[in-house]
Amino acid sequence: MSLDQPIEDLERRCPRLGSSISFQYCLISGEDDFVCWKILDCWWETFDVERYLKKNMPEAEFNHLMATADKPKNKISSIIEIIEKAKKGR
Ligand code: SF4
């Protein structure tokens, strides 16, 4: 995929803040200026964010992110998860 602007300048609506933010913000908006835990889920449809992070983060930090991040879910998985939560809520 080719992008006609620097990746750090890409913008999207942030589901946490409810406003438009740049990818640059996502890189530092986690705890202790770490990347946001939703970064994979928020950006995977726009570009190969996992590859970008693997290339640009220290290996230990990248591995920590992969172990703790909110990963993209497909619609079927999300629906099944909602049904399971509803069943438990009864
Ligand atoms: S990665 Fe975090 S800061 Fe960036 S848009 Fe998603 S929720 Fe907002």
Multimeric status of the protein: single chain
- Biggest beta sheet summary: 2 strands, antiparallel
Helix and strand element order = EEHHHHH
On the 0 to 100 scale, the average pLDDT is: 88
Number of helices: 5
Number of strands: 2
Q: Can you tell me the overall shape?
A: globular
Strand content: 5-15%
Number of domains: 1
Spans where pLDDT lies below 50 across 5 or more residues: none
Q: Order of strands in the sheet with the most strands?
A: 1-2
**Helix share, percent:** 40-55%
What structural class do the secondary elements suggest? mainly alpha
Molecules bound to protein: iron/sulfur cluster
What value does the Rg take, in angstroms?
15 Å
Roughly how many Å apart are the termini?
46 Å
Explain what this protein looks like in three dimensions.
The protein has 90 residues and is mostly helical. It has one domain. It is 47% helix and 7% strand. The chain has a two-stranded antiparallel ribbon. It binds iron/sulfur cluster (SF4). Iron/sulfur cluster (SF4) binds next to helix 1 and helix 2. The site of iron/sulfur cluster has 12 residues, from helix 1 and helix 2.
Summarize this, please?
With 90 residues, the chain is mostly helical. Helices cover 47% and strands 7% of the residues. It has five helices and two strands.
